[in-house]
Each structure stands twice: as C-alpha cells, then as structure tokens.
Amino acid sequence: MRVNRCVHCTAFPCTDVKHSAYSVPQRAFEQAAVEIVLISEVAAPSPVDGYYTTPPGLFARTTVQAFHDAGADVHSLDDVVALGVYLTTAVKCAKTGVGVSTATIEACSHLLERELLLFPNARAYLLMGDVAIKAVNTIARRMGERPPVPRGATYKIRKDPCHFQGRRVFPSYLQAGPSFFIERSKRAMIAEDISAALALVRDHRA
C-alpha cells in the first residue's frame, strides 16, 4: 500500500506554507506491520531532506540517530521501518516562517486523520513537537472526543499516560531536522519517549 495513493491534497488552501514542498509518503508499506506511527511537524523545505529519500536526507539521518539514542539497533531508516514504524508529518507542506497557523494545522489534520486510519494495528503514536500534538488533538475534537494531550509544557505532561482511540500517545519534541542537535535535554527526552513506545510494542508481542 502506498499512502500517497490514499491521502492527497488537491485544494492547497493554506497560505503560510510552501506548496512546492508538499510531501505524502510514496513508499510502499505493509499496513498490518505498522505498530508505531511517528508524526513530526512539517514537510522538509527540500524534498531531498525528507524521510524516505535516497541518499538519506536530514529528516532520515536525525531520526535514525534518535532511535539509536533510544537504544534501538538501527543504522538506516530501513532499520527504523523494520521495527514497525511509519513516519509522517502533521502538515504535508514545508513552513515558510517560524511556525504554522492553527488554520493550517486544522486543514491538514483531515489528511492526517485519513492517514492514521490506514494503520489499524498501530499501538502508539509518537507526536514529535507542538504541531503534531495540536493536529492529533484537533482530530480528536472533530470526532467528539476529549483531546488526548492536555495543555501545558511538553516536559511536564509527557510522563502522564495519554491515549487516543485505544492507542498510547507520546507527546514529545521534534526529532526531524537541525533542531534535533540544539538542546541536549530535549534530545534525551526524545530518546526516552521513543524507547517507551518501542517497549510497549515489544511487551505486546511477547
């Protein structure tokens, strides 16, 4: 199954993103094998820096490092995918400024909602950054459910178990791109959250 054949934007209504950098994963996935969905914030500014690029782009390289920090024996994005991980972004276009608007997150959350439905065996959602957190909370509200991630600073709320549609939700920090190397404390928390998600899947398999 190729996600870009099931999830796509045609109207491109958002005004604060770079539409030329629009990206939905084109790689083929076995739907039943995906047990963790990692959602970062926005698409890479350049297509060569996305997740599923050859040679590996910046998003792929920092993500592999994040999983390695978490104790996973990975050396490439293929190794990460082999763990049962699907990687995507909450907003499918690159940002043009420092952040993206609530309206853009709302608009693109419809695509993300359809994307999440493609993986019924997912047991955990890793929400890497505020945009991903807001997007999943938006989906929950639209479904008439309580937002899974409460308000507050991520470092304060990440230790409390969150759930959405019967799945564990891990609010964390952005692991994709150059910001990954800036703050050691956030990098340590990213590793802890990824490790916890992997442990959850291992425990279920056992």
Q: How big is the Rg?
A: 16 Å
Beta-strand content estimate = 15-25%
- CATH architecture assignment name: 3-Layer(aba) Sandwich
Shape: globular
Q: Give the SSE order as H and E letters.
A: EEHHEEHEHHEEH
Number of strands: 7
Number of helices: 6
CATH class: Alpha Beta
How many domains would you count in the coordinates? 1
Say which CATH homologous superfamily is assigned. Answer: Uracil-DNA glycosylase-like domain
What does this structure look like?
- The chain is 35% helix and 16% strand.
- The protein is of the alpha/beta class and 206 residues long.
- It has one domain (3-205): Uracil-DNA glycosylase-like domain (Uracil-DNA Glycosylase, subunit E).
- It has a 5-stranded mixed sheet with strand order 3-2-5-7-6, with helices on both faces.
- Helix 3 (102-117) crosses helix 4 (130-142).
- It is globular.
Structure characteristics:
206 residues, alpha/beta, Uracil-DNA Glycosylase, subunit E, 6 helices, 7 strands, 16% strand, globular
In short:
By secondary structure, the chain is an alpha/beta fold. It has helices at 58-69, 77-82, 102-117, 130-142, 154-157, 184-205, and strands spanning 17-18, 36-42, 85-91, 94-95, 124-128, 162-164, 167-172.
Topology:
Layout lengths: L16 E2 L17 E7 L15 H12 L7 H6 L2 E7 L2 E2 L6 H16 L6 E5 L1 H13 L11 H4 L4 E3 L2 E6 L11 H22 L1
